[in-house]
Amino acid sequence: MSVLIYIDHADGQVKKVSHEALSYGAALAKAIGTTAEGLVLGKTSGDLAVLGIYGITKVHQVTHANLDQVDAQVFAALIADAAIAVNASVVIFSNNINGKAIAPRVSVRLKAGLVSGAVSLPDLTNGFVVRKSVFSGKAFARVEINTPIKVIAVNPNAYPVHTLEGQAEVVALDLQPRDSRIKVTATNKISGKVPLSEADLVVSAGRGLKGPENWGMVEELAELLGAATACSRPVADAHWRPHHEHVGQTGLAIAPNLYIAIGISGAIQHLAGVNRSKVIVVINKDPEAPFFKAADYGIVGDAFEVVPKIITAVRKLKGIA
Amino acid sequence: MKILVSISKTPDTTAKIAFTDNNTKFATDGVQWIINPYDEWYALVRAIELKEKDPSVSVHLINVGGADAEPILRKALALGGDEAIRVNTEGNDSYYIASQIAFVAKEGTYDLVLTGKETIDFNGSSIGGMLAEMLDLPFVSLATSLEISGITATVKREIEGGEESIHADLPLVVSCQKGMAEARIPNMRGIMSARTKPLKVVEPVAAENLTSIKSFELPPAKAGVKLVSADDAGELVRLLHEEAKSF
Ligand SMILES: Cc1cc2nc3c(=O)[nH]c(=O)nc-3n(C[C@H](O)[C@H](O)[C@H](O)COP(=O)(O)OP(=O)(O)OC[C@H]3O[C@@H](n4cnc5c(N)ncnc54)[C@H](O)[C@@H]3O)c2cc1C
Ligand SMILES: Nc1ncnc2c1ncn2[C@@H]1O[C@H](COP(=O)(O)O)[C@@H](O)[C@H]1O
Fold it and tell me: Which 8-state DSSP code applies to residue A255?
């Protein structure tokens, strides 16, 4: 028996969300008295043995030209085969974009119950019960998995990374991927910026900013903090900001460590996408803005006066003139 | 070309989230039910647009649910679907629901199956992928645009920090999100014609439930906001740095 963790990577680097999934898998393996092992599909740069610090004993790797593009169908078949090869009783994914596409397919192949959006370790006192986020972050459900093999997709930023001393043994797994039936013809990455879905810190603004020409201070603050930028839906709808910045019920759901909301009222549909943030800061000139109810820190004031002052204070803190 | 669009019923986005029966059931009192926004605004509207471009396209809708889902299926027909199928069973296990949709999809030999990105109540984002595996088809998730030419689909989809373009031959399963289409409201003609469009009710096929919901919980209430004076932005930065340790 073992716990198998799928390790997602991009541009040769293991993603931060995979460090979380590895820590989660290692803690679960300890709780059920077995070993945690990782699985990498495709080529990575750097030494995978270092992933041992997350508490896994082995990293299995399959490299093949067919794995250069992520096709959920090809990946899921390999992961399911690997799970059988290492006798896995639980397969762990990060519930990120790739995890959401692959984990359901693995669940079907292994006929293994899936809980996606898990936010804590399974409760093993009575069966195998996993807490997951539901109602767009407004509640949790405790879901029991009733099958011998289980699949869990862990929400990004929900489980803390733990490290210890240790090296993992890297082993090539002799499995052949099938041919892909899709073809990636172009990839367009917004370079230089922190991708919103992976960001630790997010600076977001809404209609209170009046127009796209006023986003300079938002971008400046974000850059100072190394944060990603986001916006409310009407702002994206009016094309003041690109669509991929839209957060909320119908946009991206994020869970950064810090979310700074400037001139956003805090409508329930907006909160649905950001209420899993660890710390929420609201800057709004209306003391009655609903967002203050969901906030940890707030300033009632005019964004055009407050934000420049915050920028000055951050510069001072960071020792930037 | 035949398109199948999966339509789920979800509480309105402003619905109060509360639970009854010892926190085992969602409290439905006073809740308005809507078509899951991703299914309606993106999957369904895109399917209708494809039909408007090519009248030989037919758009079928499928819901796995009880009779109380029929009003939302009528609305989806009013928006422009041709025919609706309701699989008469309730369930909240993704595998069980996907098995029902897969059976109908196989029987109907569809060229394209469109789902929403996720349901806004269960947030599984699982059914599209499960369905694709059950049908042994490729799955393009989180699509932001979809064009069909002959038997080839060109799909753009979200990836971390950007977008990717994909070519794939039909049949195909695609999950849809923002970008794909613009929300519409049904017009009078649509509403009138929806009354006479077929809404078939079929019984479920035997399938397993691999998971079961034990209970629900609400997150603990926030401690309350700590307000800082607008003149003292430096204090906010200090608190974020020293107390919250955010940066
Ligand atoms: C089905 C559905 C889905 C939706 N999905 C989403 C979603 O995913 N994401 C989303 O964001 N919205 C969504 N919405 C829209 C949502 O209901 C709100 O309309 C929207 O979030 C409001 O955006 P806003 O806060 O930027 O604008 P407003 O509501 O106009 O708020 C502007 C705020 O700025 C403040 N302000 C004005 N001037 C200043 C100033 N100088 N300094 C400081 N503060 C100032 C005002 O006090 C106000 O609180 C959805 C709606 C529906 C019906
Ligand atoms: N009961 C249902 N009937 C029909 N389609 C559904 C049902 N539940 C979910 N779906 C479809 O599957 C998508 C993903 O759902 P989920 O995996 O629950 O997030 C939804 O956007 C719908 O298109």
Answer: -
